[in-house]
Specification:
Elements: E1 7-12, E2 19-22, E3 27-30, H1 32-37, E4 45-50, H2 53-66, E5 71-76, H3 79-96, E6 99-105, H4 114-120, E7 125-131, H5 133-145, H6 151-156, H7 161-167, H8 174-188, E8 198-201, E9 208-215, H9 219-238
Parallel strand pairs: 1-4, 1-6, 4-5, 6-7
Antiparallel strand pairs: 2-3, 7-9, 8-9
Helix pairs in contact: 3-4
The structure holds S-adenosylmethionine (SAM).
Length: about 240
């Protein structure tokens, strides 16, 4: 990857404040924006989008302290609205430089609109998406099934999802239906079926929380992702 691209852009659509405390253990850890700023092969540009103003202010202060000279753009507000400005800024970079983008998407709930991903997908961009299906849908099942609720329609970019569910072999397993539908939508945008799509469970109670899926249009992207996953697993084993 080194040398092939003039610009490597990191986009964090639900960036948070840069640090988080881990429940149950007395530790504060760096989170996605600060981790991305500290990779051995650095990204050249960073786009951070965050809804909550205090979190955004904390992130700016932390980034300014540790990385004052990096090329960073902040977007405060709803990512599903910020996406237009993000696309404008990406267009500016893409029009001048050979560019590869990596977009991390880490919401608490199903409030990521598929249309947001679709708008970004016109660029040369790989996505790592946390599909917060279990943690949101399981809690709000009856609410989302009601006809007037639009949450899942926006999440899947499909207003007919209830009809599709009725016809689906997964009709008894809505979580599996939503995860499969998402892959199909990404396929329609030219993305490959995700490799090694993980169902992540809670450490304590082993309850499924979300799917973690990497979407690339290129087999090489999937090969890199598998290498990173296996490297991550061996690092974790080395801790014990
Ligand atoms: C799960 S946290 C992710 C934090 C970070 N990525 C990490 O590694 O821990 C989700 C973040 O998204 C923010 N958020 C929620 N809805 C949002 C929206 N519609 N647009 C932008 N940010 C949003 C929340 O305030 C929260 O900071």
């Amino acid at each position: 990857m080194k040398g092939k691209w003039e610009r490597l852009v990191y986009i964090d659509l639900f960036s948070g404040s840069g640090y988080a405390s881990i429940r149950g253990i007395d530790r504060i850890v760096q989170t996605s924006p600060l981790i991305a700023l500290n990779t051995p092969n650095p990204f050249t540009d960073f786009f951070f989008s965050e809804f909550e103003s205090p979190k955004m202010e904390s992130l700016k202060a932390r980034v300014n302290d540790c990385y004052p000279n990096r090329d960073i753009t902040y977007y405060e507000g709803d990512t599903n609205e910020n996406v237009l400005k993000i696309c404008e800024d990406l267009e500016h970079i893409h029009s001048k430089y050979k560019t590869l983008c990596f977009c991390f998407v880490d919401p608490f709930s199903l409030n990521l609109h598929f249309d947001t991903i679709k708008k970004l997908s016109v660029f040369n961009i790989d996505f790592l998406i946390l599909l917060a299906i279990h943690m949101d849908y399981n809690r709000n099942l009856s609410l989302y099934l009601s006809e007037e609720n639009e949450k899942v329609s926006h999440f899947l970019g499909n207003t007919n999802w209830r009809e599709d569910l009725k016809k689906s072999p997964d009709k008894q397993n809505i979580v599996s239906f939503l995860a499969t539908q998402y892959d199909k939508k990404m396929l329609n945008l030219g993305y490959l079926t995700p490799v090694d799509k993980q169902q992540i469970k809670t450490g304590l109670t082993n309850i499924p929380l979300y799917h973690l899926a990497f979407y690339s249009r290129h087999k090489l992207g999937n090969d890199f992702f598998l290498k990173v996953r296996h490297h991550g697993e061996s690092m974790q084993l080395n801790l014990f």
